[in-house]
Amino acid sequence: TAGSCRRRRLAPLNEDNGRFLLLAALIAAYLSAGATVFSALESPSEAAAQLRWNRTLHNFSRIFNISLPELRAFLRSYEAAMAAGIRVDALRPRWDFTGAFYFVGTVVSTIGFGMTTPATVAGKIFLIIYGLFGCAGTILFFNLFLERIISLLAFIMKACHERQLRRSGLLPPNFRRGPAMSGVGSLVGWKPSVYHVLLILGIFAITLSCCASAMYTAVEGWNYIDSLYYCFVTFSTIGFGDLVSSQNAAYQNQGLYRFGNFMFILMGVCCIYSLFNVISIVIKQVLNWVLKKFECRCCPKCHKSSARLGRRNAITPGARLRRHNISMDADGQYDSDTEGRRLSGEMISMRELTASNKVSLALLQKQLSETANGYPRNVCINTRQNGFSSGVGALAIMNNRLAETSDSR
Questions:
Q1: Which of 179, 183, 240, 360 has the most crowded CB, counting CB atoms within 10 A?
Q2: pTM
Q3: Spatial distance between the Cα atoms of 307 and 301, rounded to a whole number of angstroms
Q4: Which class would CATH give 143-169+192-298?
Q5: Rounded distance, CA 189 to CA 169, Å?
Q6: CB 94 within 8 Å of CB 85
Q7: Domain-wise residue ranges, the chain
Q8: What is the tens place of the pLDDT at every residue in 227-256?
């Protein structure tokens, strides 16, 4: 009944809580699956290495007539030296200015290789204070980078979108964007597809990783797979520390290599951070799709209302031209900070949406109808009264900049 549907909406397990619990369950399953795979892959190798080491240790003790306790004590001293940064081969100084700069860069970016750690009490206390503000400022920098890269991609994609509309005859050839439509204001009437942004960022991240891997292979002497592995571990701020670049005492063209290493890490971390946030939007859409499968479908009134909505949004002959005229008149009447497609006021062609967004016909009908008709400005004002109504952080940036996120609201 309709009453049961209303009670279901008012229940503590609303859409946001359901999405959170579903994501937590999926993450737990994902972690369990990953642990199972890595255990199956790495456990035999670890057992074999341990067996070889025990055999080598006993053979060394027997050949050189050294007791095992004395040999183990020597190896513990060697492990302590390695933890302090001492190696058999000559390495760069860990705490000169360039080494310390490399260290603080890995701290504020949360990479944390672990090859250099403060040994004094004063250094550890200073690291806590330094990392508190440094990590917060770097996360803010990543968010601002995300906002600007999305704005740049939106400007370029909007120009391509308008060019395509002119070629298809859906936009007047003499239509020009005014000064108010330049820069970030070009997002007023149209928002880019999250899938297009995901594709562009993915291609850029892959290209950047391949170029950086080629540099590390040539300079560090790693094989290409290890270089790719290092790029992902570093750019994603995982930072295991099993491979660390720019650690030898001297390199050919050392200054140029250190500068290139810094730029690759900076651009890689910013790009992968942006890519992760776009992927998180896609994951959120998948969660919304899964939650819709569990919605109440036993109420006949809900089905009737859904059917009426589908008929109201159905596309009829000539509707696209009428909606085009309406959208051209109403383009400047909507606020650019509102979320989703339904407040954009931009005419979108059926052919382009089908080719780019790959959504169902029902969603396309709803999108075309709401895009053409729009909503009054007071709706935009009401949604902006609460500073946290549209979320905070990177997810809010993506919701405000991309098109496909309105369905999650």
A1: 240
A2: 0.68
A3: 10
A4: mainly alpha
A5: 18
A6: yes
A7: 13-88, 143-169+192-298
A8: 999 999 999 999 999 999 998 888 889 999
Pair 247, 91: CB distance under 8 Å: yes
State the DSSP H helix or E strand holding residue 372, giving kind and residue range, or none if neither: helix 361-373
Q: Label each residue of 57-81 as H, E or C.
A: HHHHHHHCCCCHHHHHHHHHHHHHH
C-alpha 227, offset from chain centre: 22
> What is the C-alpha to C-alpha distance for residues 404 and 273, in angstroms, rounded to an integer?
20
SS3 369: helix
Alpha-carbon distance values, 78 to 63, 69, 74, 81, 181 (Å): 21, 14, 6, 5, 65
Could you give the angle at which helices 194-220 and 121-168 cross, rounded to 10 degrees?
130
CB 213 within 8 A of CB 235: no
Tokens of 349: 């062609």
Work out the angle between the directed axes of helices 254-293 and 393-401 (0-180°, nearest 10). 70
One-letter identity of residue 356 = S
Question: What does DSSP assign to residue 158?
Answer: H
